[in-house]
Amino acid sequence: MKKPILLFFFSLLLSYAFTQSTLFSPIHESRLDKQRKGMLVLGSWALGNMALGAIRLGQTTGENRAFQQMQIGWGAVNLGIATLGYLGTMHTDYSSWDTYRSVQEHYKIQKILLFNAGLDVGYMLGGAYLLERGQRDLKNAERLRGFGRSILIQGAFLFVFDLSLHAILANDNPKLKSILNQSSIGFSPNQVQLHIALNKL
């Protein structure tokens, strides 16, 4: 008698694990799709800065030349980040993730974006500092002002980008909470309770 009960119990657990993975699939797909689009936006911004900077680099001097140099540099870094971020979403396999991992991954990118937004404020302050210093340092005034302008612009863009992508990804938070509230497994001395939400998101 105990053997059939144990088999039934383990069947329930396996069924629950499989169903949980299936339930979280729309959440994962939505997040990865939004991340990919975000990386395309960042990559396009980076390529635009690099192309425009390369074209204008030979046509400018002084402060404007320094500005274009920094634009190209920031563009290269942003393009690298966008490329790695995009490829990372293409190779993400969430089929074996349990509930804990699903929740962890869902919120991890949002935390990273908020942290990045804080760094972006630092970039803008750094750019403003270089602009101010360029008013006093006569020897390197043009380079400091050119670099400062570029860093200020790049920091401002990244700040808006990171907060916007965070807000877009956070739109799926209520859906995740709904799944967690509707699907559960519980144990007591005399019974096992399995509750699975099968409604579409």
Keywords:
201 residues; mainly alpha; two-stranded antiparallel ribbon; 5 helices; 2 strands; disordered C terminus
Describe this structure in words.
- This protein has 201 residues and is mostly helical.
- The protein contains five helices and two strands; from the N terminus they run αααααββ.
- 80% of the residues lie in helices and 5% in strands.
- Strands 1-2 form a two-stranded antiparallel ribbon.
- The longest helix is centred in the first third of the chain and has 56 residues, at 2-57.
- The chain is elongated.
Quick description:
By secondary structure, this protein is mainly α. The protein has 5 helices and 2 strands; from the N terminus they run αααααββ. It is 80% helix and 5% strand.
Q: What's the overall average pLDDT, rounded?
A: 82
Helix and strand element order? HHHHHEE
Distance between the termini: 40 Å
Query: What sort of overall outline do the alpha carbons produce when their principal axes are compared?
Result: elongated
In oligomeric terms, what are we looking at? Answer: single chain
Largest sheet: 2 strands, antiparallel
Measured by DSSP, the beta-strand proportion falls in: under 5%
Strand order of the largest sheet: 1-2
* Secondary-structure class: mainly alpha
Name the poorly predicted regions.
5-20, 192-201
Helix content: over 70%
Total helical elements: 5
Radius of gyration: 25 Å
Number of DSSP-assigned strands: 2
